[in-house]
Amino acid sequence: MVAGGGSLLSLPAMVFMGLPGPAANGTNRIAIIAQSVSAVMGFFSRGFSDFRLSATLAIVASIGAYFGAKVGVALDGAWFDRTLAVIIVGVVATMLTGADNPAPVEQNTGRGKNLVLGHVLMLGAGFWGGFIQVALGLIVMPILNRVMGIDLVRTNMHKVTIALVLSIVSLSVFAANVDIAWKAGLALAVGNGIGGWLGANSTVSHGAPLIKKTLIVVLIMMAVKLVFF
């Protein structure tokens, strides 16, 4: 399972198109916001919601996101490319070792455990999300699932709300400091929706293992290009 893996592809792609690192980093948030809104509505329509816990987690994460975005707008040029390449390699390693697999937690309707620790850790997760967003799910989901003991369905429910709120905060910081490519961001938002539909059908037709292997190969190629070309 690759949580929030879209940014792993879209962010390097925008850099390869010629967008400066901070502009690409900020523009990517437009698609994330659109995708998150759709996901939040989808969970709500199926009766999954816990606005109180989602809100407190999102508020804490957004505080971290504000400061993370302040750092993100200053990361440019070769340093941005190298940082992104290192993150991609780290995600690939996580996928290969299976460390991205969730803990087996039974379906529940409770508020979870370790609420204070979960919120403290979410502050750091928010900083990461504001800084670069890539693989945010790989940080947020273990906090919700392993630390707080929330089942996978509700983990995803909280995750998309957290991503929505912190992305709005971080986008505002980037928009105030760099030139956001709004048209590209909106096109990416549409592409995310189409890609999600195609990805779901491909997974059903060919199986998740093939999708995962293909993603790993593509990510390795992108990391090599970021560092050496």
Explained architecture:
This protein is globular. Helix content is 79%, strand content 0%. The protein starts with 5 loop residues before the first helix and ends with a helix. The protein has helices spanning 6-16, 21-45, 51-72, 77-97, 115-131, 136-147, 152-177, 182-206, 208-228. The protein has 229 residues and is mainly alpha-helical. Mean pLDDT is 82; it is low at 199-208.
Briefly say what this structure is.
The chain has 229 residues and is mainly alpha-helical. It has 9 helices and no strands.
* Residues in helix, %: over 70%
Shape: globular
Strand content: under 5%
State the distance separating the first and last CA atoms. 29 Å
Summarize the helix and strand pattern as letters: HHHHHHHHH
Q: State the assembly state of the protein chains.
A: single chain
Q: Specify the structural class.
A: mainly alpha
For the largest beta-sheet, the strand count, sense and barrel status come to: none
Mean pLDDT: 82
Helix tally?
Answer: 9
Rg from Cα: 17 Å
Number of strands: 0
Spans where pLDDT lies below 50 across 5 or more residues: 199-208
Task: From the structure above, extract its key features.
single chain; 229 residues; mainly alpha; 9 helices; globular
Topology:
Blueprint: H1 6-16, H2 21-45, H3 51-72, H4 77-97, H5 115-131, H6 136-147, H7 152-177, H8 182-206, H9 208-228
